[in-house]
Every structure is written in C-alpha cells, then in structure tokens.
Amino acid sequence: MNIIGYSDRISVRAGETIRFMVSCERPVSYRADLVRVVCGDLNPAGPGYREVEIDSPINGQYEGRRQPLLCGSYAIVEGARLAEVRSLCVQAMVWPTRPRGKEQVLLSHWSGEQAAGYELVIDVSGAVALRLGDGSGRVELVSTELPIREREWCLVGASVDTEAKRVVLHQQQQIACERSTTSAVIERSVAILPATTGGPLLIAARLAGRSPDGRCLTEAHYNGKIDSPRLSGRALTAAEMIQLFQRRVPQHLRPDVVAAWDFSLEIPAQRIIDVSGNGLHGTLVNLPARAMTGYNWSASEMRWSSALQEYGAIHFHDDGVYDAGWQSDFALTVPQGMPSGSYAVHLRAGDDEDYLPFFVRCETGKPSAKLLYIAQTATYMAYANLSFTFTASAAELLANRLIVVQPWEEHLNAHPELGLSLYDDHSDGSGVCYSSRLRPILNMRPKVQTSTAGLGSMLWGYNADTHLTDWLEASGYAFDVITDEDLHAEGIEILRHYRTVMTGTHPEYYSEPMLDALKAYTERGGRLMYMGGNGFYWRIAYHPVLPGAIEVRRAEDGTRAWLARPGEYYHSFSGELGGLWRRQDRPPQRLVGTGFIAQGFDLSTGYHRTPASENPRVAFAFEGIDRDEPIGYFGLIGGGAAGLEVDIVDPRLGTPPHTLVVAHSDELPDSFLLVNEEQLINTPDVMGSTNPRIRSDLAFF
User: For the chain, what is the domain count?
Assistant: First the structure.
C-alpha cells in the first residue's frame, strides 16, 4: 500500500469542514475523489461493489508526500528552571515490563546533538544506569550492572554531586526475595559533569530531534509503569529520597526540589501535575494508560477515584498511538443539501488506492426520513487495525480454519506504528485499553475483508454494515445516518424525531449515554431494529476532551482477548466500572430481547419458524413466507444467516415477557462455543451439538 490516510472527523453535517491527511510511501501524484459508498463488498455473489462518484471541489490531483507516524507514549515537560540544575537527584518508582534487550529511558534531560545533559535509564542488560554528557562530546555511563526484576516495583534513583564528582545509583526492589538479589547502591567517581541543555525533560523516552513540522522525534521508549518521578537540585541521601515519595513534598526538602510529579492528579486529563510549587507541569503524548495501581496500592480499594493516593502510576508503551499528527492535504466543507449517508474520499496513486470513510448526518431535530441508521463507529474503533488474527497463537483454533492474511494485514504487519486494536496486546504483553480513529484504520474501508479461507466475504464491521444500507437503498427506504459519537454526545435528542432506529451488524461497544439514549427512545414508543449479534456487550468510555478516543477495561468476565490487572477495572476517562454491561445489571436482553450466547467462525446455518411467528402482532414480518419455509439457508458468510456471534432470548436476563421468539436457528456446528459468562464451572457441554442453548433466536416485541 503506497497511499494511506485518515480524516479528522467521522461525522459531519452541512456547513462543517472535514480535513483529510494523506501519506505516500513513495511520493507521487495521486487523485482524490469524493464518493458515496453504497456497498463495500467485492464478492460477486452478493449485490456487488458499488460507489457513486460525487462532484466536489476536492476532486483532483495532489502531490503526495510521506508523513511519518510517531508512536510511543511519553511525557514532556518544558521550563526554564530545568536548565538551572547542576548537582541533582533524579528518582522514581518503576514497574518495568520488558527490562532487557534494549535501552529504555526513564527520565531524560538530554540533547543528542550536543551530547549534553543527563538521563536515568534501564540499560540493555536490564540494570539501572545514569548517562552524563558534558557537551564536548564526552559521555559517561554508570550502571548498577544488576538486572532489575520484571513486573515488580523498584525504587530507582541517581544522585550527582558536582563538587565531589561523585555519582550514587540506587536500585531497591520493593519485594524481597531470598534467592534473587537485585537491589544495590553503587557509588562511583566520574570524569565529567552534565552540561546544561535548554531543551525539555522527557519521561519514558528520549528526545531525538524535531521533525520539519516541529513534532518531537523520540526514541528509547520505556515499557512499564512509573510512579512519583522526582527531580532535585542537589544530591540527596537514601533517606531523603524515600521521604520525597510522599504525595506532598516534605517542607524541609522544598528548597531543593525542582519538580515532583504526582500522576494520581487529573487522571482523565492529558497532563501531569508538578506538586513542588515550581509549576513544571507536563503533557502526555500518545495516551499512556492512567488509573493504574501504584507502588503503594493496598488492594483495599478497587475504584481509583476513591483512593487516588494509591493510583499514582502511569503505564507507558513503546507502541502507543493517539493522533498520527499528519498535516492536512485538503478539506471538504459539506455543502447544503448533501444527503445524509456513508461517504469516503477515494485515493488513487497508480495501482494503489485507499478510502477515507466518513458519514454525513442531518441537523438534530430536522430529519429527512423516518428511519435513522446508527453507524457503529465505536465498534469500528475497537477493532481498528486488528492484528489478533495473525499474531494470536490460537487464531486458527478459534476460527476452525486456515487463516489467509489479507493485503491490509500484510501492510499492518510491516507498519506496526499504525497502532493496535482493543483486541491486541502491546509489545510488553499488556492489553490495549485505548483506541483512536485519528490514524489510518486499514480495516475500516470499502473492499476490505478479514482473514478467510474460501468462506465467501467473511466481512466484519464497516463492510458488513454496507450490506444493510445497500438493502435499504435497493428496497426504496429513505434513511438518515448518525454515528456512535453523535449518539454519545447528544443522547435522546438526536433520536426522538425518528419513527424507527436501526443498528449495524455488530453494535458491541456502548457507552452509558448511548445505552441510556436507546432505552429512553424505546420507552417513549420508538421502534428499534437490532440487526446483529453480540450487541451492547462491552461498556466503553469516550475521552471527555480528546476527540476520537475510546477506552475499554476488560474485567473478570466475558469473551476477552486480554484481562485487566486487579484494581484496574475502572475507566480512566470517566471513572466508571468497565467490563460487561451484563455484569452491571444492564444485559442486552433488557433492551432488545436477545443477548450473546456463542461464537464460531467457520460455518453458518438458517432458521425455522416457531408457532409464535403466527401471532397477528408479527404477521407483517412473514408476508409471502410459507409456515414451513426455511429462512436464511444461504448467505455470503459461512453459507447461512445465523453464524459468527449469535444471541438468544433469556427471561432471566430481562427479555420482556411479551416477547415473541419467531424463529430458532438449526443446530450450529461444534466450532460454536458457549461464551464464558454463561459458565460457572467447566463442563463438556460447551459445543453446538451438546448444548441446546447454543443457537440463534429471532425475537420481536
């Protein structure tokens, strides 16, 4: 893929402007055209791929350029006071997740061009070390030469006495282990002293320079947690260093402290707070994970907002991404009268192409149709750039088939800097809890398939949903479109003017305002069409300030790709408990009658009607269908209408008593397995042929 891009917005209405950012691996001229996406599936057995080109001022030729994506999370602090430091002490509590194999910076006030400054690092061997540069080209590294233990808290620090030209390194493991001594105090004479650098101080990375557009270029990113980093203007004793880990700086040390960052403050924000009184607050880059248990977590409180003093850690990752930060190449101001719907900018550079999707919506309170379709953009973001299918060891076992890697997956494999999905692990093995749309999302495109092996389209997410909107259009039903972000922001107000609201094929990720809006809509008589499976499953949070960022915390239940650590189940964005909506007493059955029961990814089946389908209340749905006529024994995915992830009714979980179960699926194959939340103890009856609950229900109420 030579050309890729993204937009700054996912939803836009008349009069608003959306910007498009494009990068070419090999700078060439490319063409951009605005299109309306009708059906995104290339499978010739289906409706066929269809897009409609729209006359627009943005259509035309553009000169391409390469725009790098700078991944890796860190904190950056600017301030003149930093340059005044001569003798010093730098310290922190750290919980490293990959301490060996490469150098990782903990705290750096360094100029690579001048070889000047100082930085506290974990060296290649995994030991704590201090690097000094005098600005003349001379550099000295002092190491404890004792590898630090993985995933355990350790006090690390270094003092520099410029008069005595002495360095003292501290490495104190917080959990004692008789047969593993990894604690040390090392004192060394040094030949050079750190020179002053006028640049910023970085936590969890090193500044390697600036890009032409002024962005920080960073390297030596740290993987793991950092709690309570401190910088002092003189060499401290070991006792003073320990005293300085208090949340409030001790009065007798205040004159010596340059900065004391407390990561337990302003957790939902993207800045770090200096409590020294010197105002050296910093900014977080690329969404490092907050609301993380600190070195002093007692396990007596699981909610971070109730024990802030124990949640003073931030987990940094070398592959974290929020905003690609690319410069805009062109922009579209949506003209008046542009119909609501699914659109994209089609990019072409020789034989390469890409699509940058977005949705046009109507003004709230001014619908153009009776039907509203909700584009499930939160779910698209959750699966954004999913690498699970070619990195997970059990992917083929789960799919029960050969995995054939698609071209977009090959490109993603070669460019991990494009970021991860909420189903992936970071490079250090920790689960990805944040996702963003402000980057190229290669699997949210027309024409894209997921990994498959001769099983038809095997669509997921965006392209599967275009089958619904294509069917509406082919059937002559007028409809408006909004996105999950719109629903989250505006709630019931954006729904109340529509007679019917329709979901996509997989509305899995829902925030509380989104769920509240649908509940209020149905309680006021609105008609809701739930068109998928595994819906309303995970609770998410949108960031209160940063656009296009969502969070999930995978707690102690559900079908999970990873598991959050104890004490880290609450969202940092909102303070809400993460996990399944079912475990928070809001199962999907209460809203739509059915909920997730099983998943399988090879074959699908069809349905047979039940006697309840003859009820006059639902007669309209079966006009022209004979009583014994099978339903859906054909299809582009697995050969049937019931497959992938299936739902059933369950009165125990809130299916309303007046619900009509109008059809059951036939027996599903043994590749369909019962979901975790349905099991209290492991038993053999977890497969399609052994458990009658493994089926799909069609429900009406």
Answer: 3
Go through 443-479 and write b for each residue having 16 or more CB atoms within 10 A of its CB, e for each that does not. bbbbebbbbbeebbbbbbbbbbbbbbbbebbeeeeeb
Q: Please give the Cα distance from 701 to 689 (Å, whole number).
A: 29
Q: Which of 55, 27, 49 is nearest to 350 (CA)?
A: 27
Beta-strand pair 29-39/17-24: unpaired
Shared-domain flag, residues 205 and 342: no
Q: To the nearest 10°, report the CA torsion of 300, 305, 307, 308.
A: 140
Whether the model pTM is above 0.90: yes
Instruction: Give the CATH number for residue 84.
Output: 2.60.120.200
User: Nearest 5°: phi and psi at 686?
Assistant: -115, 5
Domain hosting 173: range is 74-316
Asked whether residue 214 is domain-assigned, the answer is yes
Q: Are residues 288 and 340 in the same domain?
A: no
Same domain for 288 and 175?
A: yes
Helices marked H in 278-334: none
Residues 147 and 191 in one domain: yes
In a domain, 456, yes or no: no
Instruction: With CA atoms as reference, report the closest residue to 122 among 235, 240, 222.
Output: 222
What span, in angstroms and rounded, lies between the C-alpha atoms of 373 and 303? 36
Q: Which of 302, 337, 357 is the last residue of a domain?
A: 357
SS3 call for 71: coil
Q: Give the C-alpha separation, 506 to 500, whole Å.
A: 18
Question: Mean pLDDT per 10-residue run, the chain (701 residues)?
Answer: 96 98 93 98 92 97 95 95 90 97 97 93 97 95 95 96 95 76 88 90 96 92 98 95 90 95 97 96 98 97 97 98 97 97 97 97 94 98 89 78 84 93 96 98 92 64 96 97 98 97 98 98 97 97 97 94 96 98 97 97 94 96 92 92 96 97 95 94 90 96 96
Contact of 15 with 23, CB cutoff 8 Å: no
Domain contains 401 = no
In 3D space, the residue among 514, 517, 522, 486 whose CA is nearest the CA of residue 574 turns out to be: 514
One domain, residues 31 and 130: no
